[in-house]
Amino acid sequence: MAGEDVRIGVLALQGDVREHLAALAASGAAGVPVRRPEELAAVDGLVVPGGESTTMSKLAVLFGLMEPLRERVRSGLPVYGTCAGMILLAEKILDPRSGQETVGGIDMIVRRNAFGRQNESFEAAVDVRGVGGGPVEGVFIRAPWVESVGAEAEVLAEHGGHVVAVRQGNALATSFHPELTGDHRMHRLFAEMVRSVS
Amino acid sequence: MSTAPQAASQDPQAAPASSSASPETGTARVKRGMAEQLKGGVIMDVVTPEQAKIAEDAGAVAVMALERVPADIRKHGGVARMSDPDMIEGIIDAVSIPVMAKSRIGHFVEAQVLQSLGVDYIDESEVLTPADEANHSDKWAFTTPFVCGATNLGEALRRIAEGAAMIRSKGEAGTGNVVEAVRHLRQIKGEIARLRGADRNELYAAAKELRAPYEIVREVAELGKLPVVLFSAGGVATPADAALMRQLGAEGVFVGSGIFKSGDPAKRAAAIVKATTFYDDPKIIADASRNLGEAMVGINLDAAPDAERFENRGW
Asked: What is the distance in angstroms between the Cα of B2 and the nearest Cα belonging to chain A?
């Protein structure tokens, strides 16, 4: 066990924060909720959780977090976004709500709710490049997919012909929610990314 | 009754490999997981697409489509039913956040209709006139997840046993009076704390007293929380009300009449969202509470006879 050597924040404006904190703890990393700029300044890495991307984006702007987030991600803070978090890490949203902003960090275009509404939400096994031990349990809830990625971004997984996991440098994003499963391999991968730059 | 999975993989040999097993819809994890995404947020009652847009712009995590807000149901009386499908579809088209809609208790055909319209969550709600005074709908039979109200732990666990994927403490809808919301949430949290302190031998008797399945009772005792997300509803009218419910342990709040029966709905909606996020920061709650215009008038519950209380519906 690597011990609780790095401090990883979970953006706690809204969404499944508790599940990410639990998954980080199970991966040997100390997770802390982040709602304020000074809390953001104190972490070695940041998870942007699942939730409602429009709400999270509005709250980030409203409470003065959007610019500090952009700045830290630009300067190499490791980040991992799931579902709504993936949308916030995209440079561009195909179908944004008016005024919906993103943090950026991964050169990709995402389509919100691309897999459909709640009735179409599903579970499926997903093979993720660089994650050993068989496919990851993928829980997709009103999930986005990645329409296209830039040259710098590496596609890690696809489902049904659509990109659902991407990595670019220190930024990682998945359409699905590993935090809702007992499968912590994505969080361990992210904790390793954080350790390698800390 | 899962619908056919869509977008199944056609090229398993492509690198990186696509998933092999066929996707599964309507699983408990997918239904309960949806509610997990709403945590920390505000779900607002709306009766028109225009109101839905105001709610979304204010930062609501979801909207609840209904025919009349509870305050009007209370005022005008009559039988309250599921909304007109045209109105629900209009609301679905107007916003990108999840749309919930209410069915009457035990009216599984209204629920079937709501599922066919593609709503993201069905609220089997005591605010509408019950259709069955003995049975709630079998919620396992649906792909669409359900939220149900509860006044105590036993009621919450019976709803979960029937397949509810989210619970809201009932409160007393349409009153603008938070007293019942506080009572029900404290009741549920208190009973969970007692279960948590019980030893294993006591759980069988506890299940009998709660009139709930032993397996779920044991799960709650082990987790120290419900196995599904718990929101608060029924009477929240101000930012401080919302923050109060969060501090008492609600994972989010439903606001019904409190927003669109107030003087400046857009402003009040945004203020309640802020106070729900920073529920533990009195300075932010104070700022959010400034100059909101008139709150809904509200009803003093001492004046409401039992027969007029929605909270007594459901069992």
From this structure: 8
Over its length of 315 residues, how does chain B's per-residue pLDDT go in tens digits?
344 333 333 333 333 444 445 789 999 999 999 999 999 999 999 999 999 999 999 999 999 999 888 888 888 888 999 999 999 999 999 999 999 999 999 999 999 999 999 999 999 999 999 999 999 999 999 999 999 999 999 999 999 999 999 999 999 988 889 999 999 999 999 999 999 999 999 999 999 999 999 999 999 999 999 999 999 999 999 999 999 999 999 999 999 888 998 889 999 999 999 999 999 999 999 999 999 987 776 777 776 777 778 888 887
A12 touches chain B (CB under 8 A): yes
B102 is catalytic: yes
* Candidates A82, A112, A122, partner chain B, best to mutate (most B CBs within 10 A): A122
Are B145 and A118 a contacting pair at CB < 8 A? Answer: yes
ipTM of the assembly? 0.94
Hey, are the CB atoms on A120 and B277 less than 8 Å from each other? no
Instruction: Provide the sign of the torsion angle of the four alpha carbons A84, A90, A92, A98, taken in this order.
Output: positive
Distance from CA of A171 to the nearest CA of B (A): 19
The whole-angstrom separation of Cα A74 and Cα A55 is 23
B 189-218: CB under 8 A from A: none
- Domains, chain A: 3-197 (3.40.50.880)
d(CA B153, CA B156): 5
3-class SS of residue A50 = coil
**What pTM value is reported for the model?**
0.92
Catalytic residue list of A: 83, 177, 179
Distance from CA of A72 to the nearest CA of B (A): 22
| Distance from the Cα of residue A120 to its chain's centroid | 21
**Entry field: residues in chain A:** 198
Taking the C-alpha atoms of residue A112 and residue B95, their distance in angstroms, rounded to an integer, is 12
